[in-house]
Amino acid sequence: MDVSIGNDGTYERLAGLVSSQFGIQLDPSKQDLVLGRLRRIMRDRGYATLDDYVAAELASPSPGALSDLIDRISTNHTYFWRESGHFTLFTELLRELISQREATGQRDVRVWCAACSSGEEPYTLAMLLLEALGPRRARWQAGVLATDISSRVLEVARAGIYGVENVARLPDAMARRWFNRRSGDVVEVAAELREEVMFRRLNLMNERFPFKAPFDFIFIRNVMIYFDADTRAALIARLRRHLNIGGYLVVGHSESLPQGADGMVSVRPSVYRRVT
Fold first, then answer.
1. For 99-150, what is each residue's pLDDT tens digit?
2. Catalytic residue among 13, 37, 95, 101
3. 37 is annotated as an active-site residue
């Protein structure tokens, strides 16, 4: 069974729902792409048109219907060691922070990967965290929180199983240390590394985030490009509230914070520090 848009205005209603629920902007130019991504769920459930699907499942959407929707329309292209300059800087800043904390008797580091996709980014951050702490790890409260809106990609992340091409850009020593080779061209995240990352589902459009303590590093890369200016500004303000003074916010290389973002200063392109 083929599927189609159906009535005029249906795509606009869908785009409005996605914007209000998830902050993602679906331009008219993306109509064919969106329909393609929804085609399977529409066929499986017997909907001939997008209009039928929207009317039946999204007029008063249940949490399950919204979860199915975002699982299918979100973009999740990533790989290990993507935008590697951020990881080099993270290592430098992390080692400085560890030294500062040790000098004052503190032993905690909190890292949040706020749009973790299929897990490549948070696992990389956890590798660097473990390597920076070394044998001191047992005495520290440390780890990486990884959140995403998509239940589907979180399942992939928790499984920790990847094709070898996905880890090809990692430095060889890291790939050998933190992955176990399985049959064929498949690798699995080492148990020690898996224990360092906690995966949770979270909608970044929530007015409040359920965190009791602030973070030292927040990574939210290549996500805000899908949001409009007002949504980005509101999200940045929420993220700032959960960042330690002196902590760092890292966005994608093609992204930036608005000039004059309250309490945030640029330390280099796409990396910002909270100062107030």
1. 999 999 999 999 999 999 999 999 999 999 999 999 999 999 999 999 999 9
2. 37
3. yes
Q: Report d(CA 68, CA 56) in Å as an integer.
A: 14
Residue written as token pair 């309250």: 262
Q: Which residues of 37-53 are buried (b: 16+ CB within 10 A; e: fewer)?
A: bbbebbeeeebebbbbb
Q: Chain centroid to CA 184: how far?
A: 28
- Is residue 51 annotated as part of the catalytic site, yes or no? no
What token pair was written down for 187? 């690798």
- Report pLDDT digits (tens) over 205-259: 999 999 999 999 999 999 999 999 999 999 999 999 999 999 999 999 999 998 7
Instruction: Report DSSP state, residue 257.
Output: P
Q: Which structural domains are found in the chain, ordered by start?
A: 10-73 (1.10.155), 84-274 (3.40.50.150)
Kindly name the residue from 51, 52, 71, 148 that is annotated as catalytic: 148
For position 1, what pLDDT does the model report?
46
Fill in the DSSP letter of residue 139.
G
Q: Is 98 exposed, middle or buried (0-12, 13-18, 19+ CB in 10 A)?
A: buried
Half-sphere exposure of 33 (CA within 13 A, CB side): 9
